[in-house]
Amino acid sequence: MENVLSILFCLSLFYVAVTWRVKAYVTVLRFQGLILAVLLMIPFIYHFSIFGIILPFTLLLVKVFLIPRYINKIILDLDVKRRIEPTIQQMFFLLLVIVSMIIIFLVSNIISQKTPLDVIPFASGFSAIIVGIYIIMFRKKLIIHVCGFLILENGIFLFSSAVASEFPMMIEIGILLDVFVVVFLMGIALNKISSTFEGFEVTHLGRLKD
Amino acid sequence: MFGLFIFILLPLFSAVICYFIKNLKIQYGISLLVAILHLSLSLFVFLGIYHIQLPTFFSIDSLSKFFLLILSNVYFWTVLVSNSYLKRPVIPKAEGGKKYYYMLLNFYLTSNSAAMLSDHFGMYWVAAEATTLSVAPLIYFYRNEEALEAMWKYLFLVSIGIAFAFIGILFLTLSAKGTTLEGKQLFFWEFIRNAKQLNPIWIKASFIFIFVGLSTKIGIAPMHSGDIDATSNAPSPIAALMSGSLRLTALIGVMRIFQIIRQTSSYEFARTLLVIGGLLSLFAAFVYMFKVNNFKRMLAYSSVEHLGLILLSVGIGGLAFVGAMYHTVYNSITKIVLFLMAGNIHRHYKSREIDKVNSALNIIPKTSWLFLIAYLAISGIPPFGIFFSEIKIFEGILFSDKPYVLGFVMFFLLFIFVNMGKAIFTMLYKNGDNQINHSAERFEITHLNAIILLILLIIISVVSPDILYVNIINITKDFGLNL
Questions:
Q1: d(CA B93, CA B213)
Q2: What range does the domain containing B325 cover?
Q3: Given CB atoms, is A113 within the 8 Å cutoff of chain B?
Q4: Which residues 6+ apart lie within 8 Å of B330 measured at CB?
Q5: Cα gap A113→B414, rounded to integer Å
Q6: Where is B228: in which H helix or E strand?
């Protein structure tokens, strides 16, 4: 089941690599959040506990409802144009993503022979981290950078489930809260940037230089 | 629980109270009281007068005790001068932001104390990220374009850096697979105790990610740009806070993982990485000082230089490590003075550009003299502490297995000293074209602060209290280093 969900997660990365629409990024974030929440809920099908279900529900609330809604609100408020503005051609971007993913999956397979880990979630998580970085590098719009950062965060989350690292619930919720506040602050900053610089592209940020 | 209350919960309550009370003077009073209590308790804990008990996820050892005292000290002086800073005129847009200033400062203290006292990697991560969140809005205090850009870059770069550090923490979990640590919580002390069992390759990967990630926050080259922009555009007390304490919060994370890796076969690799990071930072500062045009940026680069030197010395080990620990104290105190005086110069000349600051010694003599003395202190001129810590560092490097590093370090430091001096002397002595009539400079709380701190700096370095020495030796022992 984990493998199926991880592959769905990977497919969402391909969609991100080819789409031209800003809103599609938000949909993907929602979809990825849902996958992660389902992934967390799986163990509770066999051993149900009210206490343990708090984390998946918090994740669902933060990653599927709060953050995407907030980003959508920013897009509406700032009247962001529908098309993303890539700095390289989409075709190259897709190729880059595919090649990176192939390498990651192959390397993960080699690693798994020595260290016990779930190859597919591990490689999918790492792929999302890399794709998140690519999005930040090869897109102009700052709102897309925020989405890239969130895809990277989702990747880390999947990755942590693959290495079976269990943090205490309090810390997991702390991590989610931190991510939410980061996005909240970035949203406020974006609002200010759009009113101060009359645009929200990375090219507007060039005042501070040595 | 008393320790937890004073160090973490009280600043948090204070932050909540500051949010609801709109009067800045009351906010100042509450924040100052919290700062005094925090400083007193951390001093008592450091002196061994009071032994604190902390709940799960928190504990105190020689290193956290030491860094906590530095944090408390920097924070106290920052809060003390904050009231006078908030009275200074700012653009109308920035007036509204003042009401959040103390709330964010208190939240900064909570998260920073939590990060320093945490003994669990997860808790450390949450707290370290929270420090970024508390300081980012403070960077945007002036509400101008530069401040906005600096805030965005800082928030974005450091958040990504911290995310990388999280990947490093996950690799640490992988390194524990198949050992007695598997499935256990990520407590520092458990990992330090059982470090020999860890998988050397994963621990290496973990170190790389944690080091590179936290470098964005420490300001280690080549990840220093966000930090430089933030420090140079933040109000001076915040810049002092960032240079004096926030960088140490990130440094403690790197030192924890270094403490673990020290016992494994990947130790040499980690040492080399720290030395390279340190040298690159010195090099970045060295290059910048040739084209310096903004005095606050110059001070931010000076922080990159000194943190680079500290990291390099931690990597070298032995006596250099002891020197590095002394250096953290001296650097933090000197940086408060430098940034506060830079703030005074900025207020007077309404510019951060060196070319626009002329005859400062005649126009604002009190600030200028203190700025000059602080410059001499940061450059390692006796009797100020940095002279003694640098001597220890140099001796440590010379008698280490990498003596050639000393050549690079001294070369970089010499040019940084000369170029920084050139810029500062231009500001202080060069006669300007447009001499405006200036009224005599008033003696303010920032001057009093600077004088007390400089005296404190001399006292600590000349007297060299036994308790400080013993604590640093204890840290050295915790790291298993031989002197």
A1: 34
A2: 275-483
A3: no
A4: B377, B384, B385, B386, B389, B457, B460, B461
A5: 51
A6: helix B225-233
- Cβ–Cβ of A136/B155 closer than 8 Å? no
Q: Does A193 touch chain B (CB under 8 A)?
A: yes
Chain A to chain B Cβ contacts (< 8 Å): 103
Q: Is the whole model's pTM more than 0.90, yes or no?
A: yes
DSSP state of B431: P
Long-range contacts, stretch B466-473, CB < 8 angstroms, 24+ apart: B467/B46, B467/B47, B467/B48, B468/B326, B468/B329, B471/B46, B471/B62, B471/B65, B471/B66, B472/B62, B472/B66, B472/B322, B472/B325, B472/B326, B473/B322
Considering only CB atoms, which chain A residues are within 8 Å of B169?
165
Which A positions 147-166 lie with beta carbon below 8 A of chain B? Answer: 149, 152-153, 156, 159-160, 163-166
pLDDT in tens, A23-71: 999 999 999 999 999 998 887 877 777 777 888 899 999 999 999 999 9
Residue A171 touches partner B, C-beta closer than 8 Å: yes
Report yes or no: A118 at the B interface, CB cutoff 8 Å: no
B chain contacts of residue A144, beta-carbon cutoff 8 Å = none
d(CA B148, CA B233): 9
Number of domains making up chain B: 1
Spell out the domain ranges in chain A: 2-204
Q: Which of A163, A166, A210 is closest, CB to CB, to B174?
A: A163
Cβ–Cβ gap B122/A175 under 8 Å: yes
DSSP string, A14-53: HHHHH--BHHHHHHHHHHHHHHHHHHHHHHHHHS--TTTT
* DSSP SS3 for B402: coil
Sequential DSSP letters for A117-163? --HHHHHHHHHHHHHHHHHHHHB-BHHHHHHHHHHHHHHHHHHHHHT
DSSP B244-295: IIIHHHHHHHHHHHHHHHTTSTTHHHHHHHHHHHHHHHHHHHHHHGGG--BH
Chain B's closest residue to A163, CA to CA, is B174
Domain membership flag for residue B296: yes
pLDDT one-digit tens code per residue, B277-335: 999 999 999 999 999 999 999 999 999 999 999 999 999 999 999 999 999 999 999 99
Residue of B nearest to A150 (CA): B160
Residues of A in contact with B126 (CB under 8 A): 171, 174-175, 178
Query: Facing residues of B294 across strands?
Result: B353
